[in-house]
Amino acid sequence: MSPRSSSLRGGAGTADQVAVRRHNLAVVLEHLRLHGSRSRARVAAETGLNKATVSSLVSELLGRGLVTEGAVERGGVGRPGLVIDLDGSTYAAIGAEVNIDYLSVIVSNLRGDVVAEQRVPFDTAASDPRDALQRLAGLVRDALATAGPAAPVGLTVAVPGIVESATGRLVKAVNLGWRDTPVVDLLVELLGGPGYPVVLDNEANLAALAEIEARGGAAGRDLLLLTGGVGVGGGIVADGHLLRGARGFAGEIGHLQVDRDGLDCGCGRRGCWETVAGLGALLRRAADEGDPVRDPNVDLLGRLAEVRRRAEAGDQRTLAAIDATATWLVSGAASLVNVFNPDVVVLGGYFAVLSRWYVPRLQQGLAEQVHAPDAGGCRVEVSTLGFAAAMRGAAHQAALAVLEDPVALPFLDATDESTGVPT
């Protein structure tokens, strides 16, 4: 073997070792995130890594400020050891959402705990994109100030439309009226060039990620999330993976045509699903123009609380409006269940707020309209995240960039980077 080939082989071996260590660091972090505090010995036993490796990995994670060391673990086998846990104070992830009638931001730590939240009613569709993003940038700054000294590791922005995540460009959001909008470039400018990455993604996809994260092992590997907003959004999880499509544009279920003779849709077509099952359709049926529940300058949660109050009081117009949208919700959802055969359909957004009326109708409708026996085994559940689902998914995605690649963060103190051990 020539000296050159020997050198190349040694270089490849070193690269392989670095990749393996990076992978193992992520394994330990993911284990702590999913299962909580553990001693080194317990982490080793549960992950299959040897104790010496885990000890070295934990030393590096401590040096990078990603884990903390606490009390002695009790009740374990063998000699008691100090427990380690994800550090909730050193780093933070930011999730933001631009929607039709509100802007919102949350900051969470790497354990997923929300440490700050900002939300304001905002008539985004009537505003210039730059003005809306200027307001959003202000909310991000306010939320970070409230969250304390934790260093942000990333910001993910959720929007209701077709996005190119690679370029940070919003291709089209018909309900916002935005087209070819460089959302990431504008936000980076308005935030003054933050030292953390800014990423753009579709709101329904991020909400679906949040549902999986919140449900853990109970989520099932095939999930369909239906979010009721001004439009109808969808996130599809197939075999445990978010279905994004060839170019990341999958999930635009609100623009399935369900009524050829229906209303014109903002997308330029007629009779799209969201024109008959979206929040706009519900409110048009439930109240006249000028009614506070149709005022985009009034907080959405307050407007929906009023709709629910009227329904609970037996207001016939409100109940008829809910019934009409439920009919269309069932029609579209049954078609999607026939195509994807999910374990569970999760109702989010305004469908969740009014779930008392929508869940029974959907359960009955799926039983009647899905071709497979027993609705193909599909059950109906309600999101527990409400309108925060997209933001929670956005913050989780921002955190994953670090949790899946811990070496992206620097050592906080003088440390031997080849071993991760403080010097």
TrEMBL record:
Gene3D superfamilies named among the record's database cross-references: 3.30.420.40, Winged helix-like DNA-binding domain superfamily/Winged helix DNA-binding domain
Taxonomy, superkingdom: Bacteria
InterPro entries linked: ATPase_NBD (IPR043129), ROK (IPR000600), WH-like_DNA-bd_sf (IPR036388), WH_DNA-bd_sf (IPR036390)
Pfam family, one: ROK
Similarity-based family: Belongs to the ROK (NagC/XylR) family.
Protein name in the entry: ROK family transcriptional regulator
Classification lineage: Bacteria, Bacillati, Actinomycetota, Actinomycetes, Propionibacteriales
